[in-house]
């Protein structure tokens, strides 16, 4: 044994290293202020927190220590305060619109409202077109009639005026000769591609100065809207064709703006017209060009293309007249009456209203269009139409639904700025029609939700009594339920509305219609009613869905219903205790669906429970059933993320169960949960933490003085933990839980149980793997092991020795197992552990330990500084010190100078703090360690040697043992000579 360690007893305050202290007057993060004074003939003065008024100017600079990077402000704040600062999108918009300065934008007057779309009261058409294209599709073959695709004309540029005139005449002749061709058997995707090609051809022709060809393309595209051969695709066709017409109208308008600017006097380049120009600002040449366009369009023989093309360039009328839009729109409205097909006419009116809303605030023509639709509404259901749709092999419901996009747009235009009495009048006119389901659905989708909510009872009565031919009554009630869920009727009407609506819903013979309505009205019910109504709702759903196993075809709707009931309820515990709740869950026979439903319920419960705790056995059993479904779904193929999510929601449920002072029932619940959640280690960890907390709460209630009953109870808690921990797979988690459970057992004076937990934790150290994976990265377990042992040693200070095991049995076990861990090459972890063990041994020799647990007799009282006990400690300290010296020697052999010098200093500190320096061998060892560190001072922190020397001086001053003081003084003299 090369070291003869003999521990000394000292006051704990003697070995504390006191840092230098000095008084400060300001908090280091306190905001400071510097006032800079500038005046003629004087120097700039800087002062903290001073504000002076001199003849010069003064400026105050904030010195917030967290925002000094850019002149006293964070970067975002500084940029925001810059005079011309803009976010990138605003800068791009400004450049695109003419590079307007920020100051001019701020001074610009608010844009005058000149049309209905500027009022932002209407959902933009662009927001609707995508939904229309996705909804109205077809698998049938389509056809297209044109002369401008795949072998048609090629675009040629003309440079002279004579060439332009000649080519336009050739185009007109060609148009008259009927060179158009028909492309058949196109799929929907091919049809869309051809339409896009026509769009490209139109733009290319226009850019090549071939205006007539562009007009011909627009005309031929318009003709396609007369074709209803594939009628179920018609709304999507309307969207695609009107996109081309919109582009054509925009090209014409921009061309006229350019021509008007070039014809205005003022400069060679011309002066552009202002945004709010009037016809008297337009030169005659531009007006003549504009008139020519309308003359060309007026000469189109067929009604539908003539209407559509004129509507496309309708905005260009402002070059001719400023006050005739209303009369023009009314004229076009009346012209549409000549279109025989009601579907084609409805969409023509839709396009007219679209164009008109973008150019004027007048709404009379929109009302006139709706009146015309109501006049011919009965024709939609006549025998001719029924025979026609029978040829297309679509149902009347499918045919009626084709009207909705166009009718909704018109109805939306009618509702703008209308009073409630005017809307009531429209509603009355619509409900008086035969088969008004289409009109009622359009009204509900277009009217203001508050208007409908105030008349919810009236709407329910209408929908319950009207003929629903052509549209599903369930679909309309579903829409109404959606509206009322977001905008509820007055509180005094809500119950009557629900009862009236549910009478109709419940009487539906079609299960699919019923469940779709129930899906939407379940949200309304759970939001605005109590548990009785929610329970009745679920009972009615069970009644309708159980026969013939109908629930198997409607899992999605049932899942949505359960989600809405749980997430919208104001009393989550009350919902879980309803008699029809668990039977609702039993409807989900498909495992994957049931798993999603249960996870959704627990997730909603986690977010809605707040500070609420569960004490109702019915609620507990319901959540236990749901949690067990999730636990049983976990298998070897379950992903780690899925395991984590399931464990989190189940652990939250477990932590919310609280039976108050009935601790025995609480422990029984944890026992039941242990058997129910055997697949999830994180849940087991939660259970162990909960049981330990239960034992701690018991001790707090009895104020540390256990009775026979409470003592037996806390021992049962310790036994629960000791039995449960081995079921957990992760070794590190088991070690931590054993240590925590042992600490709790020790706190409750369960000494035998604490010893068992501590011993089990130490025996796991050899099983600890060298590495583990965290966020996809491989990391060493050595930092965890070191932290664990430090925690264990802190606890071991107050753990009394087991009389049957010998002195410091647990420490000897630690020294034995710590060598069996597989350390990384060149690791200093075990040496660091040995150094901490020396700290523990130094404390273990003290007459009074620094901390205790009430009613636990620690070794200081148990042994009473018995010489044999102190001798055992000294022997262990010598063994540990020898191990450290052996490691020091190995570092010397591997030429690891830095690590060797640092270890020498660390051991030096442990010796002067806890060892008796009057022992010659220990004194010599201490001095040699100092010499070794000083010899290699170049690889150490320069301040470290001085700090250690100062600490040695501190110990020499405060120690109360004269022999130790003398030895330290001698050591200091030698240390100083080597500094």
Quantity of strands, as a count:
7
Contiguous uncertain segments of 5+ residues: 17-25, 30-110, 151-159, 172-178
Number of helical segments?
44
Beta-strand percent range: under 5%
Percent of residues in helices comes to 55-70%
Structural class of the secondary elements?
A: mainly alpha
The major beta sheet can be summarized as:
3 strands, antiparallel
| Rounded radius of gyration (Å) | 44 Å
> What is the spatial order of strands in the main beta sheet?
2-1-3
Mean pLDDT: 83
Q: How would you sum up the global shape?
A: elongated
From the N-terminal CA to the C-terminal CA, the straight-line distance is 30 Å
Description of the structure:
The protein is mainly alpha-helical and 979 residues long. Helix content is 62%, strand content 4%. The protein is built from 44 helices and seven strands. The strands form three sheets. Strands 2-1-3 form a three-stranded antiparallel β-sheet, with no helix packed on it. A two-stranded antiparallel ribbon has the order 4-5. Strand 6 and strand 7 (777-780) form a beta hairpin. Helix 20 (456-465) runs antiparallel to helix 21.
Layout: helices, strands, pairs:
Elements: E1 32-38, E2 45-48, E3 57-63, H1 75-81, H2 88-96, H3 102-107, H4 125-135, E4 142-146, H5 161-177, E5 181-186, H6 188-207, H7 211-224, H8 234-262, H9 284-298, H10 303-312, H11 325-335, H12 342-357, H13 364-375, H14 383-391, H15 396-401, H16 404-415, H17 420-431, H18 437-446, H19 449-454, H20 456-465, H21 473-486, H22 491-506, H23 511-528, H24 531-545, H25 555-568, H26 572-576, H27 581-586, H28 591-609, H29 617-633, H30 640-656, H31 663-676, H32 681-701, H33 708-724, H34 731-747, H35 751-763, E6 771-774, E7 777-780, H36 782-796, H37 809-817, H38 829-844, H39 859-863, H40 867-893, H41 897-914, H42 920-935, H43 942-958, H44 962-978
Antiparallel strand pairs: 1-2, 1-3, 4-5, 6-7
Helix pairs in contact: 4-8, 5-7, 6-7, 6-8, 7-8, 7-10, 8-9, 8-10, 10-12, 11-13, 12-13, 12-16, 13-16, 16-18, 18-21, 20-21, 20-22, 21-23, 22-23, 23-24, 23-25, 25-28, 28-29, 28-30, 29-30, 30-32, 31-32, 31-33, 32-33, 32-34, 33-34, 33-35, 34-35, 34-36, 35-37, 36-38, 38-40, 38-41, 40-41, 41-42, ...
